[in-house]
Amino acid sequence: MNKGQNMLEGLRVIEFANFVAGPCCGRLLADWGAEVIKIEPSFGDTMRIVGVQWNSPITEEENPLFENENAGKKGIIVDANTEEGKKIIYDLVKNADVFLTNTRQKALVKSKLDYSTLKEINPKIIYGHLLGYGEKGPAKDTPAFDYTAYFARGGIALGLMEKGTSPCNTAAAMGDHYAGMSLAAGILAALHRREKLGIGEKVSVALFHTAVFGMGLPVVSAQYGYSMPITRRMPPNPINTTFKTQDEQWIQIAFFQYEKWFPNFCNIVIERPDLIDGPYSTLKGGIKGINEFVPMLEEIFIQKPAKEWIKRLSEAGIPFEKLQTPGEILEDEQCWANDYLFKHTYENGHEGILYNTPVLFEEYGIKEFVRAPKLGEHTEETLKEIGYSDEQIKELKDKKII
């Protein structure tokens, strides 16, 4: 529970974004105490309806995937394709600190919601732009999702696949969340700079760049001959891979101090003390003999259930984890002990599980959860705050601008 004043108290963010990457940045800022005003068209953010693809309810009373990205915000409806709608956005920007969007640059220029236009209205605005491929180059106007810009072009999908098989069906929104987190960090850096110098800034983060940064180790290593995808049977070293257990589970071992950990691995884990001074006892020897040693270890690990290997690896002090499904994470006691997950009761009475954003503060605590806005829920309230009269609001409604 939040223990005091919000960390970003008084910060006003105007969010003109949909789906995941842009809105999750807004969610982070809202969690940290900013007032985030989300602008939607009359049909709403597409994230309100896509949850059905992942078996999620999409009703007004219960829409967890929309909640994940939009909790704690205010929501207004504005038709940004009209002059009256643009004026509303400009009026909001005049008194805002941050404008956040993941609309393509070409469309922003056409709608006159680009940085050059908005900084004329508010020179101190921090303009956060979540892009697919970046502002320059041949792909700058290409439609992008994390499936394409992050997983496919960014090397993630082939980097994760088992060599010789087909690419994995990717985990939706993973890249979006990393990019959104990066943009939130950049916005805060720009706000700090504005505090010192009194000037605005444009902050850009691209899904493609986020993937290149995340894949930095294999990308840089590629120039020296390291090639991906790889097979789990040809890992960087023969113990630094996954092993299947008797009960159809998988164990991932992170064996990065090879010579130091090898004796305990042989004595305690696989009960093969005869290997301690053998050809696989050094990192160089293990790599040289990888074609023989990995199959040997596979034959050993398949003989016992995961529970037994967990016990032995723990006793040996070797870093490892059993591979978990997303469903198992819902029951992981480590998540609940650290408030990574929490229970939320929806208006229809159903209790579901949602997640907290992944930055925790000792003194600030966790801000109390506020549900995502219903479509257009705060339109009138927000317009009145910036000086619109009841008559003006009625006229905008009649014209379907709001």
UniProtKB/TrEMBL annotation:
The keyword Transferase applies. SUPFAM superfamilies: CoA-transferase family III (CaiB/BaiF). Keywords: Transferase. The keyword ATP-binding does not apply. GO terms for molecular function: transferase activity. This is Isocaprenoyl-CoA:2-hydroxyisocaproate CoA-transferase. It comes from Fusobacterium animalis D11. The lineage of its organism: Bacteria, Fusobacteriati, Fusobacteriota, Fusobacteriia, Fusobacteriales.
